[in-house]
């Protein structure tokens, strides 16, 4: 497990100095007790802070809090709140690291979010570490709302919000058609607030220290800090807290790097020279995964492995996933090795257009984003493959793909 924070780009907010797991007493010594603010003050602080979701979409947190509160009033159902620690993205480590080192910040955020929306039930959903988190929950005898820790399958889709609502309602952890969205009708039909665990930890800090303090990190347009899982130079990835607006080149060295994957397996490949111009922004960061592809690796081959995984892990419930993603993954495999390519590039472009926007969830869209960015970023490598050559010399796979470990 990644539990060190070797790069300090700012005074750490989400972790205690030294990055040791913080029990409740240490947490209270550092941050004080849970603030007793009323829901209106909390909502004002969250709105003023500009806090956005850290689960991938970067959605403004205050808007979700308002939507769930209103849905609760309209329907007469007490909302359900869910701290999303599923972390289904195989290349991400930030949520499990946060839950291991600062569980009480997340649990504070969950209580505060529950208070803001007037929730009647609260869950913490995790794939790993449930026993440790149950101990942390048991320490908190003063909480208004009991929190149930639920185990979710360690799969790419289990952390999608409708999959979680379905699991908590007694079904499988697979996405459903989100009409209406879970924030209106989710767990057992109640309005459901699903919030990434890192978002909740930031919310707990905003409630204590205020919106102006929160904005002292980051930029005016994108305030605050963000946890990134950084894959660079081989070995275990590092989890780093960095302010939005930080140059990507400071986060990971770009010498000897061919391209950078930003935003994880639903993200985009960016050539290294373009990555050097980027700063950390929610719009492309997704759940905070950044991975440097060294010059000696084959970008198309790495992409083909990830696409195979994404196609296999789709729920296969909708046409785009059932028919489109396996074809796309198989076609990309042709581009990933030296040899004749026929009409594969044109086929990929056509199939990508056909699956986009047609799934019940955004899985096909995220997959297509990765395909398109690989086709442009690795155009030279794919041309070389067509001529029978590969510029990648290191055979070891770089990006973690779970079933290959089994
Ligand atoms: C295929 C898929 C998988 C997802 N997996 C996760 C996950 O593991 N953890 C997470 O926090 N959000 C995940 N999300 C995003 C959630 O649906 C939801 O938007 C998020 O938890 C909301 O929290 P936030 O507003 O705090 O970001 C996933 C989305 C999709 C489309
Ligand atoms: S689009 Fe794919 S992953 Fe999403 S619900 Fe449909 S089959 Fe499942």
TrEMBL record:
Domain NADH-ubiquinone oxidoreductase 51kDa subunit iron-sulphur binding, first and last residues per copy: 303-385
Key words of the record: 4Fe-4S, Flavoprotein, FMN, Iron, Iron-sulfur, Metal-binding
Domain NADH-ubiquinone oxidoreductase 51kDa subunit FMN-binding: 47-203
Pfam families: Complex1_51K (PF01512), NADH_4Fe-4S (PF10589)
Entry-linked SUPFAM superfamilies: Nqo1 FMN-binding domain-like, Nqo1C-terminal domain-like
Cofactor(s), by name: FMN; [4Fe-4S] cluster
Family per similarity comment: Belongs to the complex I 51 kDa subunit family.
Protein name stated in the entry: NADH dehydrogenase
């Amino acid at each position: 497990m990644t539990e060190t924070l070797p790069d300090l780009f700012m005074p750490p907010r989400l972790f205690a100095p030294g990055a040791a797991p913080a029990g409740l007493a240490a947490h209270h010594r550092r941050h004080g007790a849970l603030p007793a603010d009323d829901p209106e003050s909390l909502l004002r602080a969250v709105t003023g802070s500009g806090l956005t979701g850290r689960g991938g979409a970067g959605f403004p947190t205050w808007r979700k809090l308002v939507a769930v509160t209103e849905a609760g009033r309209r329907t007469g159902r007490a909302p359900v709140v869910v701290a999303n620690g599923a972390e289904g993205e195989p290349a991400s480590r930030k949520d499990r690291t946060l839950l291991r080192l600062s569980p009480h910040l997340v649990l504070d955020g969950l209580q505060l979010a529950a208070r803001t929306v007037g929730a009647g039930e609260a869950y913490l959903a995790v794939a790993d570490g449930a026993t440790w988190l149950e101990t942390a929950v048991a320490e908190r005898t003063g909480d208004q709302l009991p929190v149930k820790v639920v185990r979710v399958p360690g799969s790419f889709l289990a952390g999608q919000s409708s999959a979680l609502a379905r699991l908590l309602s007694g079904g499988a952890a697979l996405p459903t058609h989100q009409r209406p969205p879970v924030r209106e009708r989710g767990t057992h039909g109640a309005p459901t607030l699903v919030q990434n665990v890192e978002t909740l930890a930031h919310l707990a800090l905003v409630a204590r220290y205020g919106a102006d303090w929160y904005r002292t990190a980051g930029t005016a347009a994108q305030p605050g800090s963000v946890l990134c899982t950084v894959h660079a130079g081989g070995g275990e990835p590092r989890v780093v807290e960095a302010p939005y607006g930080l140059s990507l080149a400071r986060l990971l060295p770009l010498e000897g790097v061919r391209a950078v994957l930003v935003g994880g397996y639903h993200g985009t490949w960016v050539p290294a020279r373009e990555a050097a111009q980027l700063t950390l922004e929610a719009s492309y960061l997704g759940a905070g995964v950044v991975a440097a592809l060294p010059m000696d690796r084959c970008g198309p081959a790495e992409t083909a492995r990830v696409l195979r995984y994404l196609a296999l892990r789709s729920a296969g419930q909708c046409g785009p996933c059932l028919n489109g993603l396996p074809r796309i993954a198989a076609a990309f495999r042709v581009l990933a090795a030296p040899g004749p390519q026929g009409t594969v590039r044109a086929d990929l472009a056509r199939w990508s257009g056909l699956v986009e926007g047609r799934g019940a969830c955004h899985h096909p869209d995220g997959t297509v984003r990765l395909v398109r960015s690989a086709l442009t970023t690795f155009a030279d490598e794919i041309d070389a493959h067509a001529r029978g050559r590969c510029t990648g010399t290191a055979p070891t796979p770089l990006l973690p793909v779970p079933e290959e470990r089994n």
